Amino acid sequence: SWEGGTRVTRSEFVVVANRLPVDRVVAEDGTASWRRSPGGLVSAIAPVMRSRKGTWIGWHGAPDEVLEPFDEDGMHLVPVKQTAEEVELYYEGFSNATLWPLYHDVIAPPVYDRAMWDAYVRVNQRFAEAAAEVAADGAIVWIQDYQLQLVPKMLRELRPDVRIGFFLHIPFPPLELFWQLPWRRRILEGLLGADLVGFQLPGAASNFVRLCRRLLDARYLKQDVFWDDRIVRARAFPISVDVHELRKLVARPEVRERAEEIRTDLGDATIFLGVDRLDYTKGIAQRLQAFGELFEDGNLKPGQAVFVQIATPSRERVEQYQLLREQIEQQVGRINGTHGELGFPVIHYLHTSYDRAELAALYLAADVMVVTPLRDGMNLVAKEYVACRDDMRGTLVLSEFAGAAAELKRAYQVNPYDIDGLKETLLTALNAEPMEQARRMRSMRKRVIEHDVDRWAHDFLAELEQPHNL
Ligand code: ADQ
């Protein structure tokens, strides 16, 4: 169809996410091009996008810039504008200073600010309008994550004919916490615009259903909510990793050589590894505290064991993230200053992002992978580590508060708030015999290989496409 002179491509399959699945790269000669963003979500959805001639709606990453739709990597992409002020209020503000901490057990205090809320509504409306414009009759529209919780309802008002799925990548909080939110009813009604609301864990789906009953007085049966003469299904779909991609990576000779090189560079010490966005939900301070105390107690000696902590820069304009960075960097300095020796720091802290091959080499080099979030929707790092260890070696220390703990039962599970328990578990994992390592790794690998990210996308879409009449 022709609208306002520009051709609108209508799609049977539409993905709506805060970000487009591509990043702009500028070459040395100044020419700009697009490159597919790394990460499981994009690689899971890209094949579906291609086979269904799908459209992806999202922000392209540059404030204030208006871009026309374009095709890249076999996908039709529709950029949605965000002003600099909206990035500050909607993205850094309501999404990452309000919803993110509220949904992660209020580890940091959520900010409740009306101007942020207004921007959240405005930007969600813009995404809903973009989706309404490109969706074909009866299309499938799949909305991603906490930045866009109002879109399901807004889109349904514009386009009652389309089938709407929503997936929340982060935890959904218990009623007692969600209740704090001044706009709690609006968020819940926003989500109820979907036909299917997907969560990482069954417990999150239950929290949602319980809230619908208590806050909106909605009728429900198990995990089906009756709302507006419709059935809204709440279900769990634990997300996973691109096992195929990771296996190909670790099969590359240069990745295996790089892993050897890392081990040599670290003086053949036992390697503990942490890989996280620098985020207060990840429990980085707790794991470093526990590790440092193992030196204090004489259980570890400098040169014998090292901790490699990769911390990806994240949300650097949000105050809590600036505070966290200062705190972690001070802690690293203190522990190295106290326990390190010349030529033998006990922590290697790297505040940077790596490509997939370097990450895979680090996973291969690590003896003990340490994943200790205080709360995490899933945690893909834990699953990536398992997917990479086709040598059946290495141990995984995993927080009970990561969604992944429900599947990776053979990890050494810990409560990261319990520093003594964490210390004990680090030592147990370190001292596990090769046979025991292999036994645990085999069981965890079975789970991850059978439940990879393709299956996640497939299961969600199969459920969404199932007929469900009232
Ligand atoms: P995140 O909070 O970002 O994801 P996680 O699931 O661990 O957490 O995913 C992080 C991804 O970034 C991994 O694929 C990892 O390899 C990559 N990464 C981390 N540090 C990196 C670095 N220095 N360089 C390059 N890559 C790096 C949110 C939720 C999670 C949920 C996912 C998916 O918070 O709970 O598992 O979405 O739904």
TrEMBL record:
Q: Which family does it belong to?
A: Belongs to the glycosyltransferase 20 family.
- GO annotation terms (biological process): trehalose biosynthetic process
In terms of InterPro entries, this protein maps to: Glyco_trans_20 (IPR001830)
Mention any one GO cellular component term assigned to this protein in its UniProt record: cytosol
An example Gene Ontology molecular-function term? alpha,alpha-trehalose-phosphate synthase (UDP-forming) activity
* Name of protein: Trehalose-6-phosphate synthase
Endpoints of the signal sequence: none
Q: Name one Pfam family in it.
A: Glyco_transf_20
Which PANTHER family has this protein been placed in? Answer: BCDNA.GH08860 (PTHR10788:SF106), TREHALOSE-6-PHOSPHATE SYNTHASE (PTHR10788)
Q: Superkingdom, according to UniProt? A: Bacteria
